Amino acid sequence: MIKAVLFDIGGVLIYDPDEQIYRKISRELGADYKRTEGETEKLLPELQTGKNTEREFFTRLTGRLGIPFKEEYVNLWKKGIMEACVLNEDVYKVAKELKQSNYQVGIISNIEKSHTEYFRSQPWIRLFCPVVMSNEVGSRKPETEIFDVAIEEVNLSAEECAFVDNKREYVNAANGVGMHGVLFKGDARQLRKELAIIGVKIRTV
């Protein structure tokens, strides 16, 4: 029986901010968007697991793009999420109703340090426990370690946990560790149906 439902942030709890952030970075750097996006994706794993700082990230990114590094670039991640973060109220309502239905609700997210700091300052995040951020635990989806941390923190078995993500790769990874992966397709009504299929019973209020 499922006792905990854990959510991704970007693309689930908030509308996917990536394109808007990448476009902001490319504009500020004066670089081609597609090149910026591609090089950013290559550098994200070390940034999101805390192996590189955001200064180191932008030093490497500008080097790859052939652009002189400027100190002002370091704050672009934080500025980007502050502009792009929009809470998906319908999904947040599902999470609230889950908690009111006596389920644990938590977060598992691939994320940078400045985004972690920003999200932890937002009132809506107080609903969730645990909040497992990749940059804090040194592992990111689809690695098994980040799921193991979340499972340990809810103090349940993997089979008692569901995980909601908008990326099939990460849903499959959750299934691989024994959790119930749920693919979010952008519709809270669909999410409710998918949760019901795996036995999650939500008391609406």
- Global Rg: 17 Å
Give the quaternary arrangement of the chains.
single chain
Query: What is the CATH architecture descriptor of the largest domain?
Result: 3-Layer(aba) Sandwich
CATH topology of the largest domain: Rossmann fold
Main CATH class of the largest domain? Alpha Beta
Tally the helices: 10
CATH superfamily of the largest domain: HAD superfamily/HAD-like
H-E string: EHHHHHEHEHHEHEH
Q: Mean pLDDT score, rounded? A: 96
What's the number of extended β-strand segments? 5
The shape, in one word, is: elongated
Q: Tell me the major beta sheet.
A: 5 strands, parallel
Low-confidence segments? none
Give the structural class.
Answer: alpha/beta
Helix residue percentage: 40-55%
Number of domains: 2
Order of adjacent strands in the largest pleated sheet: 3-2-1-4-5
Give the DSSP E fraction (strand runs of 2 or more residues): 5-15%
N/C terminus separation: 22 Å
Can you describe what's shown?
There is one protein chain. The longest helix has 16 residues. The chain folds into 2 domains: 124 residues, 3-Layer(aba) Sandwich (Rossmann fold); 67 residues. It is elongated and about 55 Å long. With 205 residues, it is of the alpha/beta class. α1 crosses α2 and α1 crosses α4. The protein has a 5-stranded parallel beta sheet with strand order 3-2-1-4-5, sandwiched between helices.
